[in-house]
Structure formats: structure tokens, C-alpha cells
Amino acid sequence: MFTKLTFSLISCYFNALLAILGNSLLISLIIRKSPRSMGNYKYLMLLFSSFGVVFAIIDVTNQPMLHFFNGAYIIFSRNVLGLPRRISFWYIALNCACYGMIMLLLVYHFVYRYLAVCKPHRLELFSWPYYNILIIIFVVVSLEWWIVAIFVAGENPEVEGHIQETMAENYGLNDVKDYTYASSWFYRIDRITGQEYASIPDFLFLANLGVIITSGFSTIIYCWLRLRRELIQSARELQSISQRTLEMQRQLFHSLIAQTLFPVFLMFIPAGILLCFPILKMNMGPVEVVILPLITTQPFMDAIVPMCFIKDYRMAILNFVRRNKNRAKVHTASDLVEDRSATNSRVFSLRA
């Protein structure tokens, strides 16, 4: 029987395999085929691709799944690594924090391109020692996401009592010891009065994530608008910039647009659904099983986009494919010649 659990596991392994292969190929292209006009930006791309591999490994070893139930969402893992329960929970919280890390790295992509095109004299922000500021921001925001998730979305008996029956019914997990989970239950029941009340910590946790995501995408939108205006102006004033550099800027800009649209539709809209549906007390039914697999396609898509939009990478792949096709044709032709020679020799021997 094809269950929710089966679908989640298959999609998890499939997405991880694609992400690791795709990002490994991109890393090779960045190292070997990056044009000089790309400058130090290739190192930022290299970092982004490397993190895509790390994210895929964390996700496939965690195998997170999602369930909605009566004002709560539950992100759970069966702890396939056999970690101690507390560490297993930290690990699933880290998996959630990786979403924020991807967004931050994407913001850095746009900030770099914005500075390179619009304010090149300030590009030193990405050089020693100033890039330590960016590292600190990345570490602080990532840790904040992770630690807040640990303390606010952590396991507790109240949530366990709320989800125990639905987890057994939908996933066959009868005992809470069979899985580790992170959860937000927005409307809880007072044990004394039996009245429902809004869980302030869970709503504050949601607000915290909203601030991080909104700040990141506000930065991206600002940089995108400024980049677009600058590139249009540069196209009109070709004297101020070489044609090759302008073409590279366009390729990178188009790549960044795609790398923004994919996270919006594959990561942050699903994440918004994940947080909003419990607030509205809506259950998604069978559709809920698609949310996390949709999100975990992101590392693979991040790898595909530069290989499609950056000409040097695209041509390297096409040339590799063509060489292999030509080799196959040569081998086929040589085999045919050998077969004909063998046939002719047999004919002549029979005549003799």
C-alpha cells in the first residue's frame, strides 16, 4: 500500500540524490569553467552550492515529515540515525533552521551583485576583514532560528497528548518514542477551565520567523530593482562597461531572478502554508504530504539555474555531451568496419 510515509521517504531520497549530484556538478563547473569576469562572485556561488550538498545530507539523514492537526503543525522524524532523543530533536530543529540559512545565502548573492554593479567601491564588504561581518550575521540569525525552535517548538507532554491519536491514525506511529518532533500548537486547552486560549509563545515564534523572512526578501527586492535599473542603463551606455562584462552581469542577474522565484514558490510559500494553516485551524488532508518534498527540491533547483543561465557552464555541459556522442559514433563506426572486414574475410576464405 502506497502510504504517506512511503511517499515521503521516496521523495526524500530522490530529492537528496538530485541535490547532491546537481550541486557536485555545479561545484566542478565553478572551479574549472568560471570566466574571469565573474570575479570573486564564484566563491559565493561555491559556498551556496556546497551548502546545497550539506542541506541535502541533513535532510536525507533526518527524513522530516509534516502533519497538520487541529491548530497545530508537527514536523517529525523517525530518528533513522538512532540518535539520543534530545540530540535527535536538536537535529530536526537544525533541519528547520537550514531554510533560514538558504535564504540568507540568497540575500548575500543579491547584495554582492548589487554592490558589484551599483556600488563597486563598496564591494570590499566581501573581502577581508569586512566579510567577517557577514559571517557573524549568518551565524547569529541561523543560531537564533535554531535555538528559538528548540525552546519554543520543542517537545512537551501537552502537545504529545494532542497529537498522539492523529499520528497513530495517519502514520502508524502509536508511541511518541517512535519519532522525534517539533511542533507549534497555536490554540491550546486550559486544563482547569477547559477553555481554548491562544499560545503566545507559538505566535511569537511565528512572528520571529516572519521578521527574518520579510527582512531577507525586502533586501532581495530592493537589490533586484536597483540591479534592473542599472543594467538597463548600462545597456544604453556601452562605453562605460565592456560588452563581455555586461553580458556576464546579465547572465548572473537572470540566474538570480530564477534563484529567487524558485525559493518563493518551492520554499517560502509552502513554509507560509505550513504556518498559516494551523492558525486558521485548517487541515490539508493528503496534500500535506507534498509540502516538505516540495521544499526539499530547492537545493537541486539552485544548482540547475546557474548551469542553464551562465553561458560558460552551459556550453561546458553541452560540449561534454557532444564529445560523448561523437565517441559513441566513432566506436559504432569502427565496430561496423570490423564486422564488414570479418564478413569479407569469411567470404574470400569460402571462395578459396
TrEMBL record:
The molecular function terms in GO held by this entry are: G protein-coupled olfactory receptor activity
Read off the Gene3D superfamilies from this record: Rhodopsin 7-helix transmembrane proteins
Q: How does it sit in the membrane?
A: Multi-pass membrane protein
GO BP terms: namely: chemotaxis; olfactory behavior
- Lineage, top-rank taxon, reads Eukaryota
Q: Which InterPro entries match?
A: 7TM_GPCR_serpentine_rcpt_Str
Which keywords annotate this record? Cell membrane, Cell projection, Chemotaxis, Cilium, Glycoprotein, Membrane, Olfaction, Receptor, Sensory transduction, Transmembrane, Transmembrane helix
Gene Ontology CC annotation, any one: ciliary membrane
Pfam families reported for this sequence: 7TM_GPCR_Str (PF10326)
Q: Would the keyword Membrane turn up in this protein's UniProt record?
A: yes
User: Where in the cell?
Assistant: Cell projection, Cilium membrane
Question: What transmembrane ranges does the database entry give?
Answer: 6-31, 43-61, 89-111, 131-153, 203-225, 256-280
Q: Which family does it belong to?
A: Belongs to the nematode receptor-like protein str family.
Self-association state and partner proteins as the record states? Interacts with odr-4.
Query: By its UniProt entry, which PANTHER family does this protein fall under?
Result: 7-TRANSMEMBRANE DOMAIN RECEPTOR C.ELEGANS (PTHR22943), SEVEN TM RECEPTOR (PTHR22943:SF113)
Q: What does this chain do?
A: An odorant receptor which affects chemotaxis to the volatile odorant diacetyl. Specifies AWA neuronal cell fate via the odr-7 pathway.
User: What is the protein named?
Assistant: Serpentine receptor class r-10
Q: Which organism is it from?
A: Caenorhabditis remanei (Caenorhabditis vulgaris)
| Taxonomy of the source species | Eukaryota, Metazoa, Ecdysozoa, Nematoda, Chromadorea
